[in-house]
Amino acid sequence: MSPEIIGGIYIVTAAMFIYGLKRLGSPATAVGGNLISSVAMLIAVIVTMLSQQIVDYRWIAVAAVLGSIVGAVAARRVAMTGMPEMVALFNGSGGIASLLVGWAALYTANGEFGISSPFTLATIVLSILIGGITFTGSLVAWAKLAEKLGSGSGAFAGQRYVTLLLLAITIVCSVMIVASPAWTSPLIYVVIGLSLALGVFAVIPIGGADMPVVISLLNSYSGLAACAAGFAINNTILIVAGALVGAAGIILTNIMCRAMNRSLTNVLFSGFATSGPAT
Amino acid sequence: MDMVYLGFILMLSVFLGFELISKVPATLHTPLMSGANAISGITVVGAILAAGADLGSWATGLGALAVFFAMINVVGGYMVTDRMLSMFKKKDNSPKEKS
């Protein structure tokens, strides 16, 4: 299929995502909304498969079948009470997928570790960073909800400074990658490792009762990660759907906070506040 | 120029996302989060392109792994959302009165 036809069908699927998300917001139409959105996803996947760029289907087929089985079994087996933590796990797997797409996009520009434009490099680094934070953050959220980790605040003395230091190193490394035209590969591993660590450090101080809000925020992040990956590989449907989820997720997070009579910053930094006096 | 177009698309999508979620009843917060999470599995499209295009074994491997994880997100996300919503249907006992 030519890129024009694929682009046209992407527009239709984007409209279906928007309509589906809208219908999900009202009790009477929610089931249909979810169905529309899932059909849109199916169409997007099939159309992408028919792209002329795709030359080898073997790995896609194996990975898609395995992933579908794991997802379907997990969704069917989970108890009704365990659904929020299941959503956290699914969200984490979406985050790691965006990280991997960003990583793979490094090879699309000009062959192995070739020189790409600073803009592309920046979006690649962003998708890796946000994807990694989403992944480990979601895993910690899952562990807290499933009570594998203590649900209380897991902050240790001075953790705030460790987190800030990690964040600073991450930013420096990211800027170095984007700025240097002949950047070297070890730096990307550093960013991947730091993003994974940051996800843990960001979520672990937050108490278990606040986890639904955190999962909603991480959901927004996974949308942003997909959006950044879309910029990295120049794909419009990734940008539209990712930005949609990113924005909707932020608003939903805000609504959930308001329902609890708290502000978002209050939820995110409550662990730090309680650990503050102990230091 | 391409970048500018993509930037416009991004800006419009963000505003749309803000507008879509305005008045949502509290019972729908979790299903909506789950449904939006499934949509974020759209990254599967990028994963397919990375795995299927001829970019060398490293990119193919990363892409295939990404397809695996993204498919978990997509399939699991939609199915779990559907299960949550079916739970509401039984409780409310009036799923289609307004539709």
Automatic annotation (TrEMBL), chain B:
Reaction(s) catalysed by this chain's protein: NAD(+) + NADPH + H(+)(in) = NADH + NADP(+) + H(+)(out)
Record-level GO cellular component terms: plasma membrane
Keyword terms: Cell inner membrane, Cell membrane, Membrane, NAD, NADP, Oxidoreductase, Translocase, Transmembrane, Transmembrane helix
UniProt-listed InterPro entries: NADP_transhyd_a_C
Pfam families given in the database record: PNTB_4TM (PF12769)
Protein topology in the membrane: Multi-pass membrane protein
One example GO MF annotation: NADP binding
Limits of the NAD(P) transhydrogenase alpha subunit C-terminal domain: 8-90
EC number: 7.1.1.1
Reported function: The transhydrogenation between NADH and NADP is coupled to respiration and ATP hydrolysis and functions as a proton pump across the membrane.
Protein name: proton-translocating NAD(P)(+) transhydrogenase
Species, as recorded: Rubripirellula tenax
